[in-house]
Amino acid sequence: MNIFILNTGRCGSTTFIKACEHITNFTAGHETRANCIGEDRLDYPDNHIEADNRLSWVLGRLDKKYGNDAIYIHLSRDKKKTIESFARRNDYGIMKAYREGILLGGQDAQSSADLARDYIDTVEANIEFFLQDKTKKMQFSLENAKADFQVFWELIGAEGSLDEALMEWDVSYNASA
Hints:
The protein has 7 helices and 5 strands. It is α/β, with parallel strands linked by helices.
C-alpha cells in the first residue's frame, strides 16, 4: 500500500516524513522522484510514504497509476502562515516556477503574497478535486499535527516507535527565514 502526502509545500511535509522515518513497515521519502519524468516519476516502491508538493501537478497520472489503491493524506497549514512563508521564497523554487512558468511572468502589480495566495488556492483546489472520489483519505492539519499523526498511524497500521515519531513534531525542519 502506498501513501501520498498531498500538500502545497511550506506546511510541514519535511517534518511529516521525518516522523514517518520511525515507522518500520513503510519506507518514507520527501520529493524522492521530483526530478524524474515518464513512468519513472511515479514509480514508488510498495509500502512507501511520499510527500511531494509537486504531485499536485500530476494528479491525473497519480490517479491512473494508484487510483483508489493508495491512501491519500491532505496536509495543510494555516493559510496566512503558508502565504507568508511562500512570499519570503518568491524568487526561487515552486513560487518562481509558478510565476514564470504558469503565469508567464505575472503582472507588475502582483505582490509576493498575492502570488502565494493564488498558488495555494490553485493547489488546494487541485487536491480537493482529486480527493473527491477517494475512499482512503485523511485531512491532516499542521496545527493539530501530534493528534492527527496518531490517527494517521492507526489508519495505515504503522509499526515502529510512535513516541519517537511524535517527538519529530517538536522540531522545525526546513523553516523559512
